[in-house]
Backbone:
């Protein structure tokens, strides 16, 4: 398959995932649709092209670990895991409904493929650092991938872990920052500016890449060689659009909280069908 | 007590290569030998209690057994939310060791006192809590923590605590069982942790005044020995608890909860640190005495309660 064809397949998969998520979130009147949409291409690329995992043997000791530290975007992860065959797609219908194990924040409760309980901000990266350290100690070849939000980079525990990963030369660790420029109350720039962002990571002994997080060829470029530099952890600063993929949801923070109404749902289905 | 912990942990690390010791930059003059012997399995994570708990969890989720060592207030309170979600919820093999508990850091004041740690740890499901009172209990707690597949909190105090138990008794220590040290029918004194020597002194001094007390050490606060508490509430008329911890949430609270649901009519009183900050400095015995915790003051109170 040539590159263009290959990316076309991934683009279609991303669209299908957005539809699945729309059904899940509207079906249970849940929140965080925009948080889920901003990481779709990242998840598609990682799960299709990067992660060494076996959906039928999800606890294999030498599997790559994936942690969604921004655990509130978990609808996207559940949809991806079901798509990959970690569990039956029918389970997605229970998302956030009475008695379901598909909780609205990533929670390690027996769902195959969920490696860590996160979503309380600043938890995923320290756990990922522990897993990457364990791989080094046990001389296992697995790698650890952690998706963090920009808002999470306010947390002290995140920066503690960034300092530690650099110090311990964890080049088997890759962080992807979903840099959609929104945090809970407003614009990141206005609330607690992270810039110069890449330079901060570099100063903490990380190797950085900065890409458009929705562009599959840029994602392919970023993940083509890991580690970026021997002896340094990797960070991909992925510039994204919160709510990406549906015009009325894009770059508006209210979709961190609200469930789309029928009018928006109709627009979404129309645009996702194109 | 800390020496017994360290020696036992070294023994465990010798026999099990999956055991890792993590410290948040604590353990000067404690861990030097361990660092030399196990340069990879002794990890100083820097002054980072919050991420250290996450790292310990990541290591445990990858098959390791992790002992995390820091001063008690920072090992438990600074990173409580991480302990709750990462360690306790996931039920992982992380053993949190809080050193210098109570008033151990006697000259350093409120920031370094740890009088709330047991209360916080008791709140967490899956958590086993050890509060050893002498080197034998400390050794046993460190070893038993290793054998438990799940989260543990071990509360340590300064080095130099005297041995209270006869060493042959060590074999009979059992998780969830109190240790009866003396048997007397006039009252029961339940003690946990650092005040075990004081409790023994109280019992001995009251015996000279012809008041015979039962002394029970409870090195495990969770799961606590319900049976022995209920049994002693039935067989003695007076029941007391003694601890170097806030009277809220520690041993005294745990016993009160059991008694409240036991239809017992036993007279009950908690000796512990009252619900206020101690914002003075001084020796550890001075600070304890300031809070009413000396063999003399507690002994006198017990006498008064019984004489009434």
Residues:
């Amino acid at each position: 398959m040539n590159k263009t064809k290959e990316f076309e397949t991934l683009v279609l998969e991303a669209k299908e995932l957005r539809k699945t998520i729309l059904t899940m979130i509207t079906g249970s009147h849940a929140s965080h649709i925009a948080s889920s949409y901003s990481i779709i291409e990242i998840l598609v690329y990682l799960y299709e092209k990067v992660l060494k995992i076996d959906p039928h043997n999800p606890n294999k000791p030498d599997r790559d670990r994936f942690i969604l530290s921004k655990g509130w975007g978990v609808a996207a992860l559940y949809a991806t895991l079901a798509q990959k065959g970690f569990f039956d797609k029918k389970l997605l219908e229970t998302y956030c409904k009475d008695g379901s194990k598909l909780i609205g924040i990533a929670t390690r409760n027996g769902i195959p493929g969920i490696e860590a309980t996160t979503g309380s901000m600043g938890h995923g990266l320290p756990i990922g650092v522990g897993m990457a350290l364990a791989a080094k100690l046990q001389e296992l070849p697995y790698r650890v991938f952690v998706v963090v939000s920009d808002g999470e980079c306010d947390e002290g525990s995140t920066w503690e872990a960034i300092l530690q990963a650099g110090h311990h030369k964890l080049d088997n660790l890759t962080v992807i920052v979903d840099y959609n420029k929104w945090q809970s109350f407003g614009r990141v720039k206005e609330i607690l500016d992270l810039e110069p962002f890449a330079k901060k990571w570099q100063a903490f002994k990380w190797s950085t890449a900065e890409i458009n997080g929705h562009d599959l060829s840029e994602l392919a470029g970023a993940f083509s060689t890991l580690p970026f530099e021997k002896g340094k952890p990797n960070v991909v600063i992925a510039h994204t659009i919160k709510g990406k993929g549906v015009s009325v949801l894009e770059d508006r923070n209210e979709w961190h909280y609200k469930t789309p109404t029928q009018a928006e749902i109709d627009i979404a289905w129309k645009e996702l069908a194109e | 007590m800390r020496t017994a912990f360290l020696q036992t942990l070294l023994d465990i690390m010798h026999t099990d290569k999956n055991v890792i010791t993590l410290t948040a930059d604590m353990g000067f003059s404690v861990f030097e030998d361990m660092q030399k012997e196990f340069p990879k399995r002794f990890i100083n994570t820097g002054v980072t209690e919050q991420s250290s708990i996450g790292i310990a969890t990541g290591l445990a989720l990858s098959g390791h057994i992790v002992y995390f060592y820091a001063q008690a207030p920072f090992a438990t309170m600074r990173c409580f939310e991480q302990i709750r979600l990462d360690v306790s919820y996931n039920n992982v093999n992380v053993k949190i060791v809080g050193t210098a508990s109570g008033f151990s850091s006697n000259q350093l004041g409120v920031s370094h006192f740890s009088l709330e740690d047991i209360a916080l740890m008791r709140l967490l499901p899956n958590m086993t809590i050890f509060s050893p009172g002498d080197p034998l209990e400390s050794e046993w707690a460190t070893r038993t923590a290793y054998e438990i597949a799940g989260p543990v909190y071990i509360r340590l105090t300064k080095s130099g605590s005297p041995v209270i138990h006869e060493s042959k008794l060590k074999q009979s220590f059992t998780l969830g069982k109190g240790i009866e040290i003396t048997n007397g029918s006039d009252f029961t004194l339940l003690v946990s942790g650092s005040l075990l020597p004081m409790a023994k002194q109280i019992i001995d001094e009251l015996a000279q005044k012809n008041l015979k007390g039962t002394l029970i050490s409870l090195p495990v606060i969770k799961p606590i020995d319900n049976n022995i508490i209920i049994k002693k509430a039935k067989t003695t008329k007076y029941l007391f608890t003694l601890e170097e911890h806030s009277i809220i949430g520690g041993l005294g609270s745990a016993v009160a909860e059991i008694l409240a649901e036991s239809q017992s009519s036993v007279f009950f009183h908690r000796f512990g640190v009252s619900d206020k900050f101690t914002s003075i400095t001084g020796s550890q015995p001075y600070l304890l005495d300031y809070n009413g915790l000396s063999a003399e003051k507690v002994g006198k109170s017990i006498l008064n309660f019984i004489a009434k």
The radius of gyration of chain A is 18 Å. Chain A touches chain B at residues 61, 108, 115-117, 120, 122-123, 125-135, 137-138, 156-158, 160-161, 163-164, 167 (CB under 8 Å). DSSP finds ten helices and seven strands in chain A. Strands of chain A lie at 65-68, 144-149, 173-179, 182-183, 186-187, 207-212, 234-239.
